[in-house]
Amino acid sequence: MSFLEANNIVKKFANHLALDDVSVAIPENSIFGLLGPNGAGKTTLIRIINQITGPDAGKILLQGKPLSREDISRIGYLPEERGLYKKMKVGEQALYLARLKGVSRNDALKKLKYWFEKFEIQPWWDKKVEELSKGMQQKVQFIVTILHNPSLLIFDEPFSGFDPINANLLKDEILHLKKEGATIIFSTHNMGSVEELCDHITLINNGKAILSGVVSDIRYEHRENLVRLEYTGDNDQIKKIISHHYQLEASQALNGFESLLVKMPEGTDINQLLRMVMDHCHIHSCQEVLPSMSDVFIKVVNQNKVTL
């Protein structure tokens, strides 16, 4: 059974159909990528899950039961639009927001001390929020989002404003939260992060869910029969042999090896390629090249435009 299900969700705003019969199923204890171009309907679906707005049709189920107001305490939501009060002191505001989530004052202070020290922002406890960098404000809001130990976490562009070091720190914490049992919805335009973190995804475009599945399966299903061959030997000879049978997509020198990207006909065995060249060079590696999630995203969205 899925931890969270959105079944046949429809949402209209005036003359705009934001969600058109969208269904998603989010497995328990997974990181689920909710993807799509700007204006696709992702944030609308997230707002419905958070009960900020309601659907015009369809329903949300949490562990098989209709989502209720009481379930809000089980959700932690980090929105793309950050919402800290600029004039309040950092520690005072973090404590206030934790108390709103039902955490006792003593527990909140203990947990905030732990997280502020872990994220190295303890010296900013008595500073006003407006004195913090965007990245530091993001750390504070992340802490407040997870402080009440919610079973469902929703992160909308969580790495916005972070340098690579702090982005990796946040990625590690997200993976740890999953390890501790949380189910996570992760909305982002960063496809590299999707490949690193997500188990499953749904891609929404123009209000419709147009692609869903396990990340590794999706990449495999959209493969284009590309093989990367790395070798040392007579480059001109090898290229001549291969191009007589297959299509050469790219050639470059890489880490002291010659590297060729070869497009193979559907159903062709890589071993055929290896047998063809192995007597003429020293092969260092040969492997299929799967498309990145960025490649898949662009391909599927563009195909969807054509069919509209």
TrEMBL record:
InterPro entries listed in its UniProt record: AAA+_ATPase, ABC_transporter-like_ATP-bd, ABC_transporter-like_CS, ABC_transporter_ATP-binding, DrrA1/2-like_C, P-loop_NTPase
Pfam families on file: ABC_tran (PF00005), DrrA1-3_C (PF13732)
Gene3D superfamilies per the UniProt record, alphabetical: P-loop containing nucleotide triphosphate hydrolases
Keyword line: ATP-binding, Nodulation, Nucleotide-binding, Transport
Domain ABC transporter stretches: 4-231
Keyword Glycosyltransferase annotated: no
CDD domains according to UniProt: ABC_putative_ATPase
Any one GO molecular function term: ATP binding
Keyword Oxidoreductase carried by entry: no
Family, similarity comment: Belongs to the ABC transporter superfamily.
Protein name: ABC transporter
Natural source organism: Geofilum rubicundum JCM 15548
